[in-house]
Amino acid sequence: MATILPERPKVGMVSLGCPKNLVDSERILTKLRADGYAMSPDYAGADIVLVNTCGFLDSAKEESLDAIGEAIAENGRVIVTGCMGKEAETIRARFPSVLAVTGAHQYEQVVGAVHEAAPIAPSAYLDLVPERDLKLTPRHYSYLKISEGCNHRCSFCIIPALRGDLVSRRPDAILREAEKLVAAGTRELLVISQDTSAYGLDLRHASYPLKGGGEIRSDMTDLARHLGQLGAWVRLHYVYPYPHVDRVIPLMAEGLVLPYLDIPFQHAAPSVLKAMKRPANEAKVLERIARWRDIAPDIAIRSTFVVGFPGETEADFDYLLQWLEEARLDRVGAFRFEPVEGAAANDLPNHVPEEIKEERYARLMELTARISAEKLDAKVGRILPVIIDEVGGDGATGRSQADAPEIDGQVHLRDAGHLAPGDIVQVEIEDADEHDLFGVPA
Ligand code: SF4
């Protein structure tokens, strides 16, 4: 007689916030899959719904609370985790029926809460660890989290309060994870953390032995070099311009790491940077960017800026625009300053009125859109490598080395129906607009 396997409880997941949170969601789901749970793509089929929240901005908190409300209305059996877990009282006051609330990175607790709420009957047939991690990102690119937490105390940010000081993963463990991802089809590794350039500081940059011989040092450059040897694109996010960042630029020139740096500068005016308490706030950034471009001419620099920070004067803002005009960054995102509950910046004097924030935001976006359009226009006629994300009909969309998924631009291809997601192809660029490129496989 055939063995009848017990029904596996099904877990639904709503994941909010940044790519780092998405990595946490993947880990939680991977652990639950390994424990024998099945996944449900909708509320109706789930025995339990996990909501992985973001608490970075007040607007993100509202979005998280809305998501919890929706999950309760649609399913009723809800466990909350993630950054908003710090505010368990607020959540419980609004949603008394929530089954459990756990904080960011409390994998054991959240998995334990699922076991308690939807126990699983032990079965030798089901308790298998899956071959590879369950991924929420498309198969051809993967986020690789190298550390958690942050040693800085930027005055507008509550991440250190939510996530604690820097804790780096061992470089050999990161490399093993990256090898598995590449073996499973990943063509692009997106290195993330709160502060990638600080990687290994807490490990005192110690070296660790590698399985196949040799060793790896726990610092950004050595890690990037090893990752670069796996044959996938390697993209570095959240890098602060410390002096040692100069050492990764030659790896870009060698083709080991993508010529791409995501550096959240946030501002340029010295008095604003000081009030923000930004790390690596040094005056010679423009000169260094010029040097980086001498070594790796195609380097694309992406950054984010805050306009209307408390105390930002018209002169500070003009300084920022002038700086941007000279820096000619490839990709720029901007935010109007928004006080976040618990952030030190809220208590600073001279808050900027909303209409002035709006006006400055519009001026900054206009300038950076023009620079972006000029830089993209200069690529018309070139042949560039492009990674394919989606194929539909006769066309495809992908990204050049200068474009990270979800936050940067795209390359739209014609005559490309024969390609598949994850292919890396040479593309002749035929046209450009403010954000995107258009081309044809070369
Ligand atoms: S570097 Fe600053 S903004 Fe980034 S996580 Fe740390 S404290 Fe927050």
Automatic annotation (TrEMBL):
Superkingdom assignment: Bacteria
Keywords linked to the UniProt accession: 4Fe-4S, Cytoplasm, Iron, Iron-sulfur, Metal-binding, Ribonucleoprotein, Ribosomal protein, S-adenosyl-L-methionine, Transferase
Residue ranges annotated for the TRAM domain, each copy included: 377-442
Co-factor note (free text): Binds 2 [4Fe-4S] clusters. One cluster is coordinated with 3 cysteines and an exchangeable S-adenosyl-L-methionine.
Reactions catalysed: L-aspartate(89)-[ribosomal protein uS12]-hydrogen + (sulfur carrier)-SH + AH2 + 2 S-adenosyl-L-methionine = 3-methylsulfanyl-L-aspartate(89)-[ribosomal protein uS12]-hydrogen + (sulfur carrier)-H + 5'-deoxyadenosine + L-methionine + A + S-adenosyl-L-homocysteine + 2 H(+)
Names of the cofactor(s): [4Fe-4S] cluster
Listed SUPFAM superfamilies: Radical SAM enzymes
GO molecular function terms noted in the UniProt entry: protein methylthiotransferase activity
Keyword Membrane: no
InterPro entries: Elp3/MiaA/NifB-like_rSAM, Methylthiotransferase, Methylthiotransferase_CS, Methylthiotransferase_N, Methylthiotransferase_N_sf, NA-bd_OB-fold, Ribosomal_uS12_MeSTrfase_RimO, rSAM
Residues in coiled coil: none
Enzyme Commission number, as recorded: 2.8.4.4
Main enzyme class: transferase
Binding sites annotated in the UniProt record for [4Fe-4S] cluster 2: 150, 154, 157
Subcellular location: Cytoplasm
Residues of the Radical SAM core domain: 136-374
Domain MTTase N-terminal: 9-119
Known function: Catalyzes the methylthiolation of an aspartic acid residue of ribosomal protein uS12.
Family, similarity comment: Belongs to the methylthiotransferase family. RimO subfamily.
Name this polypeptide is given: Ribosomal protein uS12 methylthiotransferase RimO
Gene (name only): rimO
